[in-house]
Amino acid sequence: MNKPLILKLAILLVITVFICIVLAQIGGLVSERQARQREAAQSVEQSLAGPQALAGPLIARSCKETWTTLTDDGKKEVVQSRNFWLVAAPSKLNISGGISPEVRHRGLFKVNTYASQLDVQARWDRLDMPAPKAEHAGGRLACGELAIVVTLSDPRGIRTADLKLNGRAMALQPGTPHTAFRGVHALLPEVKPEEALTVSLKLALVGSQRLGIVPAAGDTRVSLQSSWKHPSFNGQFLPIERQVGVSGFTAQWAVSSLASTAVADLEAGKPLPELPRGGLVSYQGDDSTPVHANAGRLDVLAVELIDPVNPYVMSDRAIKYGLMFIALTFITVGLTELLTGRRVHPVQYLLVGLALSLFFLLLLSLSEHLPFVVSYLIAAGAAAVVLTQYAAAMLSGWLRGLSFGGGIVLLYGALYVLLSREQTALVIGAVMLFGVLAAVMTLTRKLDWYRLGGGERVGSAE
């Protein structure tokens, strides 16, 4: 190879690095918009209510143990105490209801919230309330009254709550016997231990994006339905039955106390589960060890109202394919230059690369106002038109320009397939790259690479 060709390759390498910097800047803008979207979600949660996790109804009472110990020198007595609570979970818990999605906006950003109407039925075959036990020598116990308790992640989301015990209305009060739990409670009247108890709760609840139920019962049955078309089921228990369609979803769960430690964990005072976006399990380390976001918390079954086409997630994924996209275009231009003898200036490569890069910025900005598919069509169409007319001048002919534009359209189509087919994106991308390599090898199979840059027109032999 001669010096002019080496110099041009070096310039193209510099141009590629510059394009990578441009793509990185656009990627940073996507990350910034994602952060602002999270801030918008937090703003809505602060003003309305956050993701809701529900545990109960339960029958509980708070207790306190006090005891006396001596100091290290044995000369002085010190009174110590501990607070705990005793819990009697229902033998059967049935929860049914609907989730009505409500989209709220903070500027350009939307946040999925919901209003749910839950019908909760809990039954105790008999009230087997654990007896308080002192854990220290000489410990003195003092316990409060029995109460029916419903705990929630964010009680601000309660709109209405009607509680009945054996068909009789009960007055609800804010708070719970345990300081670590928020929610509501009603004092339990005196009942016989062998008497069966039935508690019914009509609960109107609002929250943001995610709803979870703690299976704190001997047998838990949950049935939820919603008009939301894109649910994500997560937690420690998935539905035993579910149907997802254009009209929404229905799902049923069945959890036995043999499969969950929720009752014992409640009595131990473990906190309600957090409901992070995208599920409860993440992965850390080179060995991909699962890390549960709710380690040390109560078990939960949960549903999340997700957006399958989040514009920022889709734009971020598109930018990850940007370098490959631009490299394929440069290869196409280079092949055209080799096979036709038409020289293309590095500045023209730069302008083509910038046009392809700004497609991603245009896609991001449009998708904040329009559906992603519409935004993609507009951005891709604009880029294809500009590149087609520019290629017609660059390659000296409308036929070559239209052929180049057609290749760009195919690349945009392939990119959209990669974005929309997340589970098969790897195989599609691998097949596409192999096909491009095969086409390049076929078109250049008879080129004399030693003569490149020698001043003679180079082409394939007939």
TrEMBL record:
Keywords: Membrane, Transmembrane, Transmembrane helix
The keyword Repeat appears for this protein: no
Residue stretches spanning the membrane: 321-340, 347-366, 372-392, 399-419, 425-443
Pfam families per UniProt: CreD
Domain of life the protein comes from: Bacteria
Protein's UniProt name: Cell envelope integrity protein CreD
